[in-house]
Design a protein that fits this description.
The protein is of the alpha/beta class and about 350 residues long. The protein is built from 14 helices and 11 strands. It binds 6-O-phosphono-beta-D-fructofuranose.
Length: about 350
Amino acid sequence: MSEKNKTIGILTSGGDCPGLNAAIRGVAKPVVEKYGMKAIGFSDGYRGLMEGNARGLSPDDLSGILTLGGTILGTSRESFKEIQKSPEKIEKMIENYKKFELDCLVVLGGNGTHKTANLLSEKGLNVIGLPKTIDNDLYGTDFTFGFHSAVDIATEIIDRIHSTAQSHGRVMIIEFMGHDAGWLTLYAGIAGGADVILIPEFPYSIDRVIEKLHERQSEGKKFSIIAVAEGAMTLDESKMKSKDYKAYYTSLPFPSMGYKVAAEIAAKTTLELRVTVPGYQQRGGEPSPYDRVLATKFGTYAAQMILDEKYGKMVAIKDNRITAIPLKTVAGKLKLVPRNHSLIKAGRMLNTSFGQPR
Ligand code: F6P
C-alpha cells in the first residue's frame, strides 16, 4: 500500500511523564508531514480506543510539543487484568481499530500498556510499542523515556535537602517513586550522594541502616540523607506473600514508605528525622534534553517501522543502539536492579549503605 493511504493511531497509556509529547511528535511528524499519512490520536489511553474517542493530528497539533510535559492526548490506567477478563472491551478496541481504518496502532506506555499491546497484536492488530515510564522497569530496553527527566528532578530534590540537612544536623529521608523497581531511587541516590539507598530489590535491615547513621556520627558527620523507594521493604516483609504484604502494609499507621522508615529509626534512636515525599513532581514538567533525544529516536524509529510495515514490536535502546523487540518478549516482564549492577558496585565502593543484612 502506498504510504499516502496509510492511517496510524496513537495513544498514551499509564502514568504520564516528561517526553510523551516528544515521542508523539517523533512518530507523527514524519508520517504526517513527510509521508502524507493520516495520524489519529486516541484520548486517554486505551479508554479512548474502547470508546472511539479520537481526533486527527494535524501539523499544528504537532508543533511546539517537543518540550511540553504530560501528554496532549491525555492518559488513563486501564488495568490489563480488567481488559483481559472483559472480551467486550477487547472487541470494542478491535472494532474501533477497524472503524478508523488503522494500518497501525502506536502505543506509548509501560508494563501494563505493553501487556495489552501484545494482546491486541495477538488478535491480529498491527501494533508498535514505545517504552515509557519514570520507573525504567520495562524489560528489554536499557532506558525508557521519562526516566532521565525524573532522575534530574529527584537529584535536584536531594541536592536541596542536603543543605537543610547540613544546617540542622538532621537525618533526612526522601521517598521516591518506584513500587517494583528501584532504578529511579538508585540513580538519584548516587547522583545526589545519598548515604543510604533503599530499593525494593534489596530488602533492608533497619539495624544496618542505623549502624550507617551512627558510623557517620562517629566520623563527625552531623547529617545523613536516606533515599528510599516507595516499594522498599524489610527482609521479613519481603518474605510475605504478596496479598499478605498488601494487607499488612495498608494496616500500617503511615501514609507511605518514607514515614515508615522514619518510625523504624525513631523507635531505636534519638536522631532528629524529617521526611520529604516529592510525589508527582517526579513526573511533571518538561522533558530533559536526554529524554527529548531518546523520545525522538524512539518515535522516528517507529515511523520507519511503519514505512517498512514491521509490527508487533516495542522500540528499545540496547547498548546505546535503537532497536525493536517482539511485544511477546516484553509483555509482563519487569526489569529489576540486579545485585551486580555497576551503580551498586560504585555505591559499595563509596561505602553507601543499601541496608543489607550482614
Ligand atoms: O508507573 C509510574 C508511577 O509513577 C509509579 O512510580 C508510581 O508508583 C505510580 O506510577 C503512581 O500511579 P498513579 O499515577 O496511578 O497514581
